[in-house]
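Hello again, I could really use a second opinion on something today. I've been puzzling over a protein and I'd love to understand its fold better. I'm sending you its amino acid sequence along with the backbone structure tokens. It would help a lot if you went through both lines with me. I've dropped the whole record in just underneath, so have a look.
***
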Amino acid sequence: MLNHIRFIDYIDILLVSYLLYKTYKVLRGTVAIKVFIGILFFIVAWLVVNFVFQMQLLGGIMDQVVNVGAIALIVLFQDEIRQSFSRIGTGDNRVSRFLNRLFSVDPSKLVDAEVMQIVIACKNLAKRKIGALIVFERTKDLKSIEVTGDFINAEINARLIENIFFKNSPLHDGAMIISKNRISAAGCILPVSHNFDLPKEVGLRHRAAVGLSEKTDAIVIIISEETGKISCAQNGKLKINISAEELESIVSNKTEEHDTSK
């Protein structure tokens, strides 16, 4: 049997293994991982029935399940599939990051005065233990998030940021979007992360920040209403209680990638 295996078959096996591994990495830490493992067991059983034992009746039934199951998988994993394709062209891979550096200027780069306005606002909010979510758009467009809130299109100003997140403000509970050096929207709704590895003490505000960072390359600053601590979410990771210096470095985008491990 091994004599009939061609070189292209080895390539085929390697490609399938690589795709399965990447799929596992995307789904790891989500509720979908158990479904993925169950599907893998079914595929192995289907291959054994069809190609090892050559059981025609059972194999035919399983063939029909596989044909229908392909459509079911697209529906079941639509969020993960959309996230993976989105990452291909939005700077979440090395090729895209290289091309962005080569041909474009980062539109999310803030000038020093704007950075200081944001840092001052965050420090004041943290001191008074006023919760806040501030999203910094990078290469991934956030129009779909902006439409969930109210458009503002205002210059970055510390007093405006503090007023938006003031506890009696109608926009207090939502997220603020900073895009192209302006406050573009506020009161926005972010997707909540289902990552079970997040600390149990973090609340909905932190999970929403991580959720957006899992789906886009945005940087999200969180201010805890309970503790007043400032945290940062990026690339699906959360760093709690960052210093003022770290906050300034993150906001000003002095480095392309930040250590946001817990």
Summary: DSSP finds ten helices and seven strands in the chain. The two ends are 50 Å apart (CA to CA). The first helix runs from residue 7 to 27. The beta strands are 132-136, 150-155, 175-179, 182-188, 219-223, 230-234, 237-239.
